[in-house]
């Protein structure tokens, strides 16, 4: 039990004293970047899906 307690205490010390956290504005800009990239990727995947669906519908109705 003392090993796990020691691990938690050392981890807490590492996180609170030794880790350099980014500024809030940096986090916001990174979050906006991820959101925009995710939306663009979703639109591209949706467009490819629509093209394949239309192509397959055209293919299957031709027979």
TrEMBL record:
One of its GO terms (biological process) is protein secretion. It is found in: Membrane. Gene3D superfamilies: Preprotein translocase secy subunit. One of its GO terms (molecular function) is protein transmembrane transporter activity. The chain crosses the membrane at residues 32-52. One of its GO terms (cellular component) is membrane. InterPro entries: SecE_bac (IPR005807), SecE_sf (IPR038379), Translocase_SecE/Sec61-g (IPR001901). Keywords: Membrane, Protein transport, Translocation, Transmembrane, Transmembrane helix, Transport. It comes from the Bacteria. The keyword 4Fe-4S does not apply. NCBIfam families: secE_bact (TIGR00964). This is Preprotein translocase subunit SecE. It comes from Aquirufa antheringensis. The gene is secE.
């Amino acid at each position: 039990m003392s090993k796990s307690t020691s691990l938690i205490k050392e981890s807490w010390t590492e996180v609170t004293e030794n880790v350099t956290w980014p500024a809030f504005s940096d986090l916001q800009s990174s979050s906006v970047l991820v959101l925009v990239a995710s939306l663009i990727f979703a639109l591209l995947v949706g467009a490819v899906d629509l093209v394949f669906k239309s192509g397959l519908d055209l293919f299957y109705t031709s027979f």
